[in-house]
Each structure stands twice: as C-alpha cells, then as structure tokens.
C-alpha cells in the first residue's frame, strides 16, 4: 500500500461516520421535502374537491329554484372535479394500480400537473398509515353521498320541465344530501389537516434527531481525537525522558535528577557510572539484536539490585548512570560492588553462544566537595574510565588525591591531538547523499557534510574523537573549521546555489556568541548563499537551552540558512518543543529505522515521528537506510528523504574537477 493510499484509508476511517450522517441527513431532508410537497398537493386537491362538491350542490339547487338551464351546465363543470378525483382513487386502488388513469383522473379533478406525481406517490406508498387510511375512508364516504346527485342530474338532463311538486321534492333531496355531505367533507378536511400536522411533527422530530446524532457523533469523534492526541503527547513526554530500548530514564531525566540532588544543601548523595566491558564483543559477534537484548537484560537486573529511591538511567550505548540520594560513601561502595557482581553473574546466551560480561563502575560521593552538574558528570566519567584502566570489572571511587587518577586525566591526549589537527589542517571533509524518497523533478545535490580525522595515513571516523572534543569543549573550534572549509569547497562546486549542504553543529556552538559574526563573515567572503546551508543540531542540544537555541536559529535563518533536528526520537521532545523550534527537517534517528522491519515498536515510532513532524510542517529524513526493503517501508509511511549506505556511502567532499581519494577501511564505520 502506498503512502497516499494509506493516508486515504486513514481519512476514510476518520470521516466515514460524518459522511454517513450527511448522506442520511440529505436523504431525510429530501424525503421531508417530498412528503411536505405531497401533503401540500393533497391539501390543495382536497380543497378543490370540497369546492367542487359544494358548487355542484349549489348550482343544482339554483337550477331547481330558478329553472335556469345554465346552472345545469355549471353543475356538470363543478361535479367533474370530485368525479375526476374519484376516478383517480379507484385507479390507484385497482390491482394492479393504473398510474396513467390516476394521472388523468387527478388532472380532471383540477390538480396542477406538477403536483399529480406527488399525489400518486403519497397515495400509493403511505395509504397504510392510520391517519391516511382514515382520510381515504372519509373521502370515500363523502363521495358515496355525493354520488346520490347523479340520478337527480340525470333526471334533470332527461326532462328539463319540472313541476312545483317535483321541485319541492328535489329541494328536499338536495338538502338531505347537503346535510350528509357537509359534515363528511369537514371531517375529511379536518382529518387531512390533522394528518398533515402529525407528519410534519414526525419529520421535525426525525430531522432534529438526525441533527442531534450528528452533534453527538462530532463530539464523540472530537473527544476520540483529543484522547488520541493526549496519548501521543503522553508518549512523547514519556519518550522525552526515557530510553526507547530499555524503558529506563534517559540522560535528560538523569541530569535533571542529578541537578536537583546537587541543589539540595547539607545532603550527601552519590553518583555512579556503569560501563559494560564486553558489550562490543556481543554486538560484533551476535549483531545489534543481541546487543539490544543484553542491554534490556542488564537494565532489569541492575534495577532489581538498587534501592527504591535510586534512579537508574541509560545514558547511551552500553553506559548507565545511577543517582543515589542520601547515600553515604560506604553504602555507595557496597551498592556498586553488588551491581558489579550482578552484572558478572548474568548468563547471556544468544543463538547458542554464551557471553560473559562485566562492568566497570565509577563512583563519586557528592558530599566530598562542591560539584557543579558538569563537574559531577565528568568526575563519574573519569572514575569509570579509571575502573577500566585498572583492569575492568571493578569499582573505582573518584578521589581528587588519587595520583593514578590524576595521571590518567593528564594522559587524555585527545585534547592535544585535536589541537594539533586544527593547527595542521589534518581534518578531512566527507559527504553522504540525502535523497528524496519520491522524486519527480530534476535532481539537485543534497548531502550531509561529515568530519573525518587523518592521522598517519588513516582516516578516523568522528566516533573516535567527537566525544573527547565535546567533553573538553573543542566542538566550537571543530565546527568553525568545518564551516570554513565546507564553504570554500561549496563555492567551487557547480550548482551550489540550488544544492543543500547539511553541516552539524554542536550544543556548545549554539551557546557561542561569536559564532554568528563568524558565519556572516565567511558567508560574505565565500559568496555562497545562506540558503544552500542546512545546519543540523541534535534534539538534546536544542532543548537544553531552548530560548537561546531559538534565538540563535532565527538569527541564522535571517541569513537564509535552514535547520534540521538531528537524532530525533532518542530524546523524543514533546510536540511543543518541535513546534517552537524553527527547523525545516526532522531526522529520524537511525536506531529506529534500522530495525523497523522486524521491530513493530520501532516502526510505530518512525510513523509517529513522521506524522507529528508533518503536522508541525516539517519534512522528515530517515537515517540508517541500509537496504531496499527499509526504503520501501519509509516510502509507504510517507517519509520525505532517506540517508544511508543503501543510497550512498560517505565520499570525500571535494571541489569540482578534483579526483576523489580512496577511502581508508577505517572510514567504513
């Protein structure tokens, strides 16, 4: 099923009750108009009938009184009307009914030709109604009385000479007939009026009931929509604070709880970082599915081994963090040892292979000194690294007087390596295609510019150094290097004005007040239009300082630049954040896209992100598109763009006219 078909099916599912009610309302309104029109024609016909029988008696009485033969002619004209109606009635009561004969009869009864079909329709299909049946009986009874005029008129037609005695007898007969037919005529007229009012009341009730049903259905559907929207927002809110794989709190909620704990005076808390030691081996040998299953198992076992007041969170990858409120150092150490033993005791089997894992745990007692949030996180990170450095599968307590720890911190040489790379221009730019999933127009270049580091002839992926650069505040410098060199290359590429080049910006750069003047300057010197640039920022960095981020993005958008919200779904910000952030694209995190064909929860997450993004007026880009099946599924969902190895691997980003350089094996990561 295509995306358009799926959307149409959803619209039909949502709208069919309303369509049905509108059809029923239309049918009822049409029926009401038909019935009302038929009743009006019937009342008009009854009026003509009553007038005809009254005039017939009147003209016949005038003839008897005066002997003027002109009154006989006028009598015949008047009596023709009830006689025509009588013929029509008898034609409709015949088996089978004769519609043509009934039409001629009603026409002879003085009825308008346009009204006669309504008269026939009402008589044929509604004579079974009690009120209609009673009206027809009154009509038939009055008609039988009126038929007594026939022998009188025949006698008059036979002999126009009448004696006084005969006139007195005719007058007496006419008076008797008039005395009988007048109340019957009135009864017929009253009954018809009553029937008309009853039918109109029923139609009014029916139309009112249908309108009330429509209102109730609208309210019900609206309530259903609002409930569904609240559910989505609750899911977004939950996912904003919880890890999708394990269900544990994520880094965002973890840091919020830690910041709250640090803000409490005269209390002692503990902080713990846990890193699984053999997780990469499980991932490499068993695949991502094995790694995900192991993470879920570890999450459950660790959760059972901590106190009820402790907060266990997944910080990313195979890293976990624990905030232990009101916890003495001795208790934190004991809990840390229990967690290590719990992890070591996990017997994990996948596809017949048994894996042994352990955990390196870093503990920071927050009462030892005054920590800021970042200092506490860094201390726990260092303590966890120290546990790994000392042989893994151990618990290390952060101590500022620990000489080995100090030495380890000093030996973190990435800072020096990155500074040297900046000075020697050892970084390299690569690009990866971002392709529209359904493209009908001419292809224009749309790619993400990626940073690599070249050392000793090897190309290193950013996973090797980005974390260190972020930890030690070097990302703004790296972002400036990327922007400067990217603009230089873009300016020498054909069609650059119509292309889109995505450049990643870190959260630290968003806070850098000097970056905007820098961007204005390099844009001016490169002659590259701002509309050619699309800056990618992660969801977490955008909402960490939301107001600052929005101001920063608006300032850059004033230069024509666009924005993409990267890794969306990992932090899963609420709809409110997405609506407020002035972004053009939402990049669906590859962790959901990668397994969406086998994991229904991942597919539903992709669908939900795509739907919410489109509702917010954003285009979507799916990462980690590694095969044709994933691309087909994304097309069905309605995702706008795709990026991944199936569409193209990262390639050196060079000006036109230069040959590409071979990729190192290290760049495959």
From TrEMBL:
<keyword id="KW-1133">Transmembrane helix</keyword>
<feature type="domain" description="GGDEF">
    <location>
        <begin position="267"/>
        <end position="400"/>
    </location>
</feature>
<dbReference type="GO" id="GO:0071111">
    <property type="term" value="F:cyclic-guanylate-specific phosphodiesterase activity"/>
</dbReference>
<dbReference type="InterPro" id="IPR001633">
    <property type="entry name" value="EAL_dom"/>
</dbReference>
<dbReference type="InterPro" id="IPR029787">
    <property type="entry name" value="Nucleotide_cyclase"/>
</dbReference>
<dbReference type="InterPro" id="IPR043128">
    <property type="entry name" value="Rev_trsase/Diguanyl_cyclase"/>
</dbReference>
<dbReference type="InterPro" id="IPR035919">
    <property type="entry name" value="EAL_sf"/>
</dbReference>
<protein>
    <submittedName>
        <fullName>Diguanylate cyclase (GGDEF)-like protein</fullName>
    </submittedName>
</protein>
<feature type="domain" description="EAL">
    <location>
        <begin position="411"/>
        <end position="664"/>
    </location>
</feature>
<feature type="transmembrane region" description="Helical">
    <location>
        <begin position="201"/>
        <end position="220"/>
    </location>
</feature>
<dbReference type="Pfam" id="PF00990">
    <property type="entry name" value="GGDEF"/>
</dbReference>
<dbReference type="InterPro" id="IPR050706">
    <property type="entry name" value="Cyclic-di-GMP_PDE-like"/>
</dbReference>
<dbReference type="Pfam" id="PF00563">
    <property type="entry name" value="EAL"/>
</dbReference>
<keyword id="KW-0472">Membrane</keyword>
<keyword id="KW-0812">Transmembrane</keyword>
<dbReference type="InterPro" id="IPR000160">
    <property type="entry name" value="GGDEF_dom"/>
</dbReference>
């Amino acid at each position: 099923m295509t995306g358009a078909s799926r959307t149409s099916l959803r619209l039909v599912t949502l709208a069919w009750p309303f369509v049905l009610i509108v059809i029923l309302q239309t049918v009822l309104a049409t029926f009401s108009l038909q019935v009302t029109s038929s009743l009006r024609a019937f009342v008009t016909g009854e009026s003509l009938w009553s007038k005809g029988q009254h005039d017939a008696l009147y003209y016949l009485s005038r003839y008897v009184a005066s002997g003027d033969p002109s009154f006989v002619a006028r009598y015949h004209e008047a009596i023709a009307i009830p006689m025509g109606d009588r013929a029509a009635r008898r034609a409709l009561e015949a088996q089978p009914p004769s519609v043509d004969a009934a039409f001629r009869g009603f026409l002879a009864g003085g009825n308008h030709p346009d009204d006669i079909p309504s008269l026939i329709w009402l008589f044929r299909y509604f004579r079974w109604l009690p009120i209609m049946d009673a009206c027809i009986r009154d009509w038939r009874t009055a008609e039988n009385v009126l038929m007594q005029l026939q022998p009188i008129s025949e006698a008059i037609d036979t002999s126009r000479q009448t004696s006084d005695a005969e006139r007195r007898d005719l007058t007496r007969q006419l008076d008797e007939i008039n005395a009988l037919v007048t109340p019957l005529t009135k009864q017929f007229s009253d009954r018809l009026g009553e029937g008309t009012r009853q039918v109109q009341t029923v139609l009014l009730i029916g139309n009112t009931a249908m309108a009330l049903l429509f209102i109730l259905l609208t309210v019900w559907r609206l309530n259903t929509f609002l409930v569904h929207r609240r559910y989505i927002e609750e899911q977004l809110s939950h996912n904003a604070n919880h890890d999708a794989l394990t269900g544990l709190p994520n880094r965002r909620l973890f840091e919020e709880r830690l910041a709250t704990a640090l803000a409490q005076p005269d209390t002692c808390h503990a902080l713990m970082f846990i890193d699984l030691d053999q997780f990469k081996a499980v991932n490499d040998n068993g695949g991502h599915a094995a790694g995900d299953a192991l993470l879920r198992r570890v999450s459950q076992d660790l959760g059972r081994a901590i106190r009820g007041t402790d907060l266990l969170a997944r910080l990313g990858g195979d890293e976990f963090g624990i905030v232990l409120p009101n916890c003495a150092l001795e208790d934190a150490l004991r809990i840390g040892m229990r967690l290590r033993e719990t992890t070591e005791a996990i017997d994990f089997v996948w596809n017949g292979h048994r894996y042994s894992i352990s955990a390196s745990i870093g503990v920071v007692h927050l009462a030892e000194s005054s920590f800021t949030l970042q200092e506490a996180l860094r201390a726990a990170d260092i303590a966890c690294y120290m546990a790994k450095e000392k042989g893994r599968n151990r618990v290390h307590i952060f101590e500022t007087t620990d000489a080995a720890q100090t030495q380890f911190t000093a030996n973190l040489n990435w800072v020096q390596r990155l500074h040297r790379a900046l000075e020697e221009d050892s970084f390299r730019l690569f690009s990866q295609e971002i392709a529209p999933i359904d493209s009908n127009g001419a292809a224009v270049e749309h790619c993400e510019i990626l940073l690599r580091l070249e050392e000793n002839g090897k190309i290193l992926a950013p996973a090797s150094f980005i974390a260190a650069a972020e930890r030690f505040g070097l990302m703004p410098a790296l972002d400036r290097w990327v922007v400067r060199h990217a603009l230089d290359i873009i300016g020498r590429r054909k069609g650059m004005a119509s292309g889109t080049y995505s450049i990643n910006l870190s959260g630290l750069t968003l806070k850098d007040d000097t970056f905007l003047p820098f961007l204005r300057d390099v844009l001016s010197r490169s002659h590259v239009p701002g509309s050619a640039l699309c800056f990618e920022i992660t969801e977490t960095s955008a909402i960490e300082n939301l107001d600052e981020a929005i101001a920063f993005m608006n300032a850059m958008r004033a230069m024509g630049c666009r924005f993409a919200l990267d890794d969306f779904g990992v932090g899963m910000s609420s709809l409110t954040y997405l609506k407020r952030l002035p972004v053009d694209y939402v990049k669906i995190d590859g962790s959901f896209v990668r397994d969406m064909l086998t994991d229904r929860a991942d597919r539903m997450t992709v669908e939900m992100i795509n739907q919410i993004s489109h509702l917010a007026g954003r285009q979507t880009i799916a990462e980690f598109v590694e095969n044709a099946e994933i691309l087909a599924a994304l097309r069905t969902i309605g995702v706008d763009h795709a990026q991944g190895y199936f569409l193209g691997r990262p390639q050196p980003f060079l000006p036109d006219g230069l040959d590409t350089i071979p990729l190192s094996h290290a760049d495959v990561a």
